[in-house]
Amino acid sequence: MSEILEYIKVLGMIWNHKVFAVQGVKLSLGNITTALILLGFSKRFSKIVSHWVMKKLVIPFVDDKSAVSTYQKLVHTSVFSMFVVVALTFAGIPLTIFTVIGGALAIGIGFGSQNIVNNFISGLILMVERPLKIGDIVEINGIAGTIVEIGTRATRIRTPESKVWIIPNSTFLENPMQNWTNDDAIVRTEVTVGVAYGSNTEVVKKLSLDILSKMDFVQQSPRPRVMFDDFGDNSLIFKLQFWADSDQVESMQFCRSEVRYAVESAFRAANIEISFPQRDLHLRSAIPLEIKMRS
User: How far lies 20's CA from each of 14, 34, 43, 268, 282, in Å?
Assistant: First the structure.
Protein backbone atom coordinates (compact mmCIF):
# COMPACT_ATOMS: atom_id res chain seq x y z
CA MET A 1 0.00 0.00 0.00
CA SER A 2 2.83 2.37 0.83
CA GLU A 3 4.32 1.80 -2.61
CA ILE A 4 1.01 2.68 -4.28
CA LEU A 5 0.76 5.85 -2.20
CA GLU A 6 4.32 6.69 -3.18
CA TYR A 7 3.47 6.26 -6.88
CA ILE A 8 0.40 8.45 -6.47
CA LYS A 9 2.50 11.09 -4.76
CA VAL A 10 5.06 11.02 -7.59
CA LEU A 11 2.30 11.24 -10.23
CA GLY A 12 0.79 14.15 -8.33
CA MET A 13 4.12 15.95 -8.32
CA ILE A 14 4.51 15.36 -12.06
CA TRP A 15 0.91 16.46 -12.69
CA ASN A 16 1.41 19.70 -10.74
CA HIS A 17 4.91 20.34 -12.08
CA LYS A 18 5.13 23.91 -13.38
CA VAL A 19 6.21 23.83 -17.00
CA PHE A 20 6.44 27.56 -17.66
CA ALA A 21 5.01 30.86 -16.53
CA VAL A 22 3.57 33.71 -18.59
CA GLN A 23 2.76 37.10 -17.03
CA GLY A 24 2.87 35.59 -13.56
CA VAL A 25 0.54 32.71 -14.52
CA LYS A 26 2.21 29.37 -13.89
CA LEU A 27 1.05 26.52 -16.11
CA SER A 28 1.52 22.97 -14.91
CA LEU A 29 1.68 19.77 -16.91
CA GLY A 30 -1.79 18.98 -15.61
CA ASN A 31 -3.22 22.24 -16.95
CA ILE A 32 -1.76 21.63 -20.40
CA THR A 33 -2.83 17.96 -20.52
CA THR A 34 -6.37 18.80 -19.40
CA ALA A 35 -6.61 21.54 -22.01
CA LEU A 36 -5.46 19.23 -24.82
CA ILE A 37 -7.95 16.51 -23.80
CA LEU A 38 -10.84 18.99 -23.57
CA LEU A 39 -9.90 20.55 -26.90
CA GLY A 40 -10.02 17.11 -28.50
CA PHE A 41 -13.54 16.59 -27.18
CA SER A 42 -14.50 20.15 -28.13
CA LYS A 43 -14.17 19.42 -31.85
CA ARG A 44 -16.50 16.43 -31.55
CA PHE A 45 -19.02 18.21 -29.32
CA SER A 46 -19.06 21.28 -31.58
CA LYS A 47 -20.08 19.10 -34.55
CA ILE A 48 -22.92 17.55 -32.56
CA VAL A 49 -24.19 20.88 -31.21
CA SER A 50 -23.87 22.71 -34.55
CA HIS A 51 -25.78 19.86 -36.27
CA TRP A 52 -28.60 20.21 -33.71
CA VAL A 53 -28.66 24.01 -34.06
CA MET A 54 -28.86 23.74 -37.86
CA LYS A 55 -31.61 21.13 -37.74
CA LYS A 56 -33.80 22.82 -35.14
CA LEU A 57 -33.09 26.55 -35.41
CA VAL A 58 -31.70 27.36 -38.87
CA ILE A 59 -32.91 25.02 -41.63
CA PRO A 60 -36.67 25.35 -40.80
CA PHE A 61 -36.43 29.16 -41.19
CA VAL A 62 -34.11 29.42 -44.23
CA ASP A 63 -35.86 29.59 -47.60
CA ASP A 64 -32.68 29.78 -49.67
CA LYS A 65 -31.31 26.23 -49.50
CA SER A 66 -28.05 27.26 -51.18
CA ALA A 67 -27.27 29.32 -48.06
CA VAL A 68 -27.53 26.34 -45.69
CA SER A 69 -23.88 25.35 -46.06
CA THR A 70 -22.81 28.94 -45.35
CA TYR A 71 -24.85 29.08 -42.15
CA GLN A 72 -23.54 25.65 -41.18
CA LYS A 73 -19.91 26.83 -41.37
CA LEU A 74 -20.72 29.97 -39.38
CA VAL A 75 -22.56 27.99 -36.68
CA HIS A 76 -19.79 25.38 -36.46
CA THR A 77 -17.07 28.05 -36.18
CA SER A 78 -19.02 29.91 -33.47
CA VAL A 79 -19.82 26.77 -31.45
CA PHE A 80 -16.26 25.47 -31.70
CA SER A 81 -14.88 28.84 -30.52
CA MET A 82 -17.26 28.71 -27.54
CA PHE A 83 -16.14 25.19 -26.63
CA VAL A 84 -12.49 26.21 -26.87
CA VAL A 85 -13.05 29.05 -24.39
CA VAL A 86 -14.91 26.72 -22.00
CA ALA A 87 -12.22 24.04 -22.30
CA LEU A 88 -9.42 26.47 -21.51
CA THR A 89 -11.37 27.87 -18.56
CA PHE A 90 -11.90 24.40 -17.09
CA ALA A 91 -8.22 23.63 -17.59
CA GLY A 92 -7.30 26.70 -15.57
CA ILE A 93 -5.64 28.51 -18.45
CA PRO A 94 -6.62 32.22 -18.52
CA LEU A 95 -7.42 33.70 -21.91
CA THR A 96 -5.11 36.66 -21.23
CA ILE A 97 -2.19 34.35 -21.83
CA PHE A 98 -2.94 34.38 -25.54
CA THR A 99 -2.17 38.07 -25.80
CA VAL A 100 1.45 37.26 -25.02
CA ILE A 101 1.53 34.01 -26.98
CA GLY A 102 -0.18 35.71 -29.92
CA GLY A 103 2.45 38.44 -29.92
CA ALA A 104 5.24 35.89 -29.79
CA LEU A 105 3.70 33.92 -32.65
CA ALA A 106 3.29 37.07 -34.70
CA ILE A 107 6.99 37.84 -34.29
CA GLY A 108 8.07 34.24 -34.82
CA ILE A 109 5.88 33.38 -37.77
CA GLY A 110 6.10 36.83 -39.32
CA PHE A 111 4.29 37.70 -42.49
CA GLY A 112 3.49 34.06 -43.25
CA SER A 113 0.51 34.07 -40.88
CA GLN A 114 -0.95 37.25 -42.31
CA ASN A 115 -2.28 35.46 -45.40
CA ILE A 116 -3.94 32.78 -43.26
CA VAL A 117 -5.66 35.34 -41.04
CA ASN A 118 -6.56 37.48 -44.05
CA ASN A 119 -8.19 34.56 -45.86
CA PHE A 120 -10.04 33.45 -42.72
CA ILE A 121 -11.51 36.92 -42.13
CA SER A 122 -12.31 37.22 -45.85
CA GLY A 123 -14.14 33.89 -45.65
CA LEU A 124 -16.29 35.17 -42.79
CA ILE A 125 -17.08 38.34 -44.78
CA LEU A 126 -18.09 36.27 -47.81
CA MET A 127 -20.35 34.13 -45.63
CA VAL A 128 -22.03 37.13 -44.00
CA GLU A 129 -22.35 39.51 -46.95
CA ARG A 130 -22.86 36.70 -49.49
CA PRO A 131 -21.72 38.44 -52.71
CA LEU A 132 -21.56 34.91 -54.10
CA LYS A 133 -23.12 31.60 -53.12
CA ILE A 134 -22.86 27.93 -54.03
CA GLY A 135 -24.10 27.36 -57.56
CA ASP A 136 -23.21 30.84 -58.85
CA ILE A 137 -21.27 31.09 -62.10
CA VAL A 138 -18.41 33.52 -61.58
CA GLU A 139 -15.29 34.71 -63.36
CA ILE A 140 -12.24 36.06 -61.57
CA ASN A 141 -8.62 36.43 -62.70
CA GLY A 142 -9.40 34.59 -65.93
CA ILE A 143 -10.97 31.59 -64.13
CA ALA A 144 -14.64 30.96 -64.89
CA GLY A 145 -16.77 28.26 -63.33
CA THR A 146 -19.38 27.28 -60.77
CA ILE A 147 -18.96 27.82 -57.01
CA VAL A 148 -19.05 24.39 -55.34
CA GLU A 149 -17.81 25.27 -51.84
CA ILE A 150 -17.14 28.38 -49.76
CA GLY A 151 -14.76 27.50 -46.94
CA THR A 152 -13.26 29.51 -44.12
CA ARG A 153 -9.91 29.75 -45.94
CA ALA A 154 -10.59 29.16 -49.64
CA THR A 155 -13.37 28.78 -52.19
CA ARG A 156 -13.62 25.97 -54.73
CA ILE A 157 -14.65 26.67 -58.34
CA ARG A 158 -15.41 23.92 -60.87
CA THR A 159 -14.79 24.89 -64.50
CA PRO A 160 -16.77 23.48 -67.47
CA GLU A 161 -13.85 21.06 -67.97
CA SER A 162 -14.49 19.68 -64.43
CA LYS A 163 -11.24 21.17 -63.15
CA VAL A 164 -11.52 22.39 -59.56
CA TRP A 165 -9.67 25.58 -58.64
CA ILE A 166 -8.98 26.40 -54.99
CA ILE A 167 -8.93 30.19 -54.71
CA PRO A 168 -8.04 32.04 -51.46
CA ASN A 169 -11.02 33.96 -50.09
CA SER A 170 -9.12 37.25 -50.00
CA THR A 171 -8.90 37.12 -53.81
CA PHE A 172 -12.64 37.70 -54.10
CA LEU A 173 -12.46 40.85 -51.98
CA GLU A 174 -9.28 42.30 -53.48
CA ASN A 175 -9.98 41.72 -57.20
CA PRO A 176 -12.85 42.53 -59.59
CA MET A 177 -15.21 39.55 -59.85
CA GLN A 178 -18.03 38.98 -62.33
CA ASN A 179 -21.00 37.02 -61.01
CA TRP A 180 -22.89 35.81 -64.06
CA THR A 181 -25.88 34.44 -62.16
CA ASN A 182 -26.16 36.03 -58.72
CA ASP A 183 -29.91 35.77 -58.03
CA ASP A 184 -30.85 34.79 -61.60
CA ALA A 185 -29.76 31.68 -63.50
CA ILE A 186 -30.40 33.35 -66.89
CA VAL A 187 -26.96 34.21 -68.30
CA ARG A 188 -26.09 36.27 -71.36
CA THR A 189 -23.27 35.21 -73.64
CA GLU A 190 -22.23 35.93 -77.22
CA VAL A 191 -20.54 34.49 -80.29
CA THR A 192 -18.36 36.65 -82.55
CA VAL A 193 -18.26 35.95 -86.29
CA GLY A 194 -16.55 37.84 -89.10
CA VAL A 195 -17.79 37.74 -92.71
CA ALA A 196 -15.99 38.92 -95.83
CA TYR A 197 -16.38 42.48 -97.05
CA GLY A 198 -19.13 42.67 -99.67
CA SER A 199 -21.41 40.22 -97.83
CA ASN A 200 -25.08 41.16 -97.53
CA THR A 201 -25.36 42.31 -93.93
CA GLU A 202 -29.14 41.97 -93.86
CA VAL A 203 -28.88 38.33 -94.90
CA VAL A 204 -26.22 37.77 -92.21
CA LYS A 205 -28.55 39.25 -89.60
CA LYS A 206 -31.58 37.23 -90.76
CA LEU A 207 -29.68 33.92 -90.87
CA SER A 208 -28.16 34.55 -87.43
CA LEU A 209 -31.54 35.32 -85.84
CA ASP A 210 -33.07 32.22 -87.47
CA ILE A 211 -30.27 30.11 -85.99
CA LEU A 212 -30.75 31.53 -82.49
CA SER A 213 -34.54 31.11 -82.64
CA LYS A 214 -34.16 27.37 -83.38
CA MET A 215 -31.75 26.62 -80.52
CA ASP A 216 -33.56 24.92 -77.62
CA PHE A 217 -31.28 26.41 -74.97
CA VAL A 218 -31.63 30.02 -76.21
CA GLN A 219 -34.13 32.05 -74.21
CA GLN A 220 -36.60 33.99 -76.33
CA SER A 221 -37.16 36.51 -73.55
CA PRO A 222 -34.99 38.54 -73.48
CA ARG A 223 -34.89 38.08 -77.24
CA PRO A 224 -31.57 37.22 -78.91
CA ARG A 225 -30.00 39.94 -81.04
CA VAL A 226 -27.35 40.38 -83.70
CA MET A 227 -25.04 43.39 -83.33
CA PHE A 228 -22.95 44.80 -86.20
CA ASP A 229 -19.92 45.32 -83.98
CA ASP A 230 -17.17 46.79 -86.16
CA PHE A 231 -15.39 47.09 -89.49
CA GLY A 232 -12.41 44.83 -88.93
CA ASP A 233 -9.11 44.64 -90.81
CA ASN A 234 -10.23 41.62 -92.78
CA SER A 235 -13.95 41.25 -92.05
CA LEU A 236 -17.27 42.71 -91.03
CA ILE A 237 -17.61 41.72 -87.38
CA PHE A 238 -20.96 40.64 -85.92
CA LYS A 239 -21.82 39.57 -82.40
CA LEU A 240 -24.63 37.09 -81.79
CA GLN A 241 -25.90 37.79 -78.27
CA PHE A 242 -28.32 35.44 -76.53
CA TRP A 243 -29.46 34.35 -73.08
CA ALA A 244 -29.46 30.80 -71.68
CA ASP A 245 -30.52 29.16 -68.42
CA SER A 246 -27.29 28.08 -66.72
CA ASP A 247 -29.19 25.50 -64.66
CA GLN A 248 -30.48 23.76 -67.79
CA VAL A 249 -27.32 23.58 -69.93
CA GLU A 250 -24.00 21.82 -69.60
CA SER A 251 -22.01 25.06 -69.83
CA MET A 252 -21.94 28.38 -71.66
CA GLN A 253 -18.98 27.09 -73.65
CA PHE A 254 -21.17 24.23 -74.95
CA CYS A 255 -23.88 26.73 -75.98
CA ARG A 256 -21.42 28.89 -77.88
CA SER A 257 -19.96 25.85 -79.60
CA GLU A 258 -23.40 24.70 -80.83
CA VAL A 259 -24.14 28.18 -82.18
CA ARG A 260 -20.82 28.23 -84.06
CA TYR A 261 -21.56 24.85 -85.65
CA ALA A 262 -24.95 26.12 -86.84
CA VAL A 263 -23.52 29.43 -88.10
CA GLU A 264 -20.79 27.75 -90.13
CA SER A 265 -23.28 25.36 -91.76
CA ALA A 266 -25.90 28.03 -92.54
CA PHE A 267 -23.41 30.56 -93.89
CA ARG A 268 -21.75 27.94 -96.10
CA ALA A 269 -25.13 26.98 -97.56
CA ALA A 270 -25.92 30.66 -98.24
CA ASN A 271 -22.49 31.28 -99.85
CA ILE A 272 -21.53 33.78 -97.16
CA GLU A 273 -17.79 33.65 -96.64
CA ILE A 274 -16.50 33.55 -93.07
CA SER A 275 -13.38 35.63 -93.47
CA PHE A 276 -9.83 34.84 -92.49
CA PRO A 277 -6.73 37.06 -92.15
CA GLN A 278 -5.36 38.23 -95.51
CA ARG A 279 -2.37 40.34 -96.53
CA ASP A 280 -1.57 42.04 -99.84
CA LEU A 281 2.11 41.97 -100.81
CA HIS A 282 3.49 44.90 -102.86
CA LEU A 283 7.01 44.64 -104.30
CA ARG A 284 8.92 47.85 -104.97
CA SER A 285 12.31 47.92 -106.70
CA ALA A 286 14.32 50.51 -108.64
CA ILE A 287 15.64 47.74 -110.88
CA PRO A 288 13.13 45.84 -113.04
CA LEU A 289 12.65 42.24 -111.98
CA GLU A 290 13.97 39.60 -114.37
CA ILE A 291 11.45 36.81 -114.96
CA LYS A 292 12.38 33.55 -116.69
CA MET A 293 9.94 30.91 -117.86
CA ARG A 294 11.04 27.30 -117.72
CA SER A 295 9.19 24.41 -119.24
Answer: 14, 16, 26, 83, 87
Domain ranges of the chain: 2-110, 132-179, 186-269
| pTM: predicted TM-score of the whole model, two decimal places | 0.51
- Phi first, then psi, for residue 192 (nearest 5°) are -100, 130
CATH T-level fold of 186-269: Alpha-Beta Plaits (3.30.70)
Which has the higher per-residue pLDDT, 65 or 135?
135
> Is the separation of the CB atoms in 147 and 67 below 8 Å?
no
Of the listed ranges 23-27, 105-109, 291-295, the one predicted with least confidence: 105-109
- For CA atoms 200, 201, 202, 205, give the dihedral sign: positive
Q: Nearest Cα to 244, choosing from 181, 163, 193?
A: 181
CATH of the domain spanning 132-179:
2.30.30.60
Contact 219, 245 (CB under 8 A): yes
How many Cα atoms within 13 Å fall on the side-chain side of residue 118?
Answer: 11
Percent of the chain past pLDDT 70, that is, above it, reads 72
Give the amino acid at 35: A
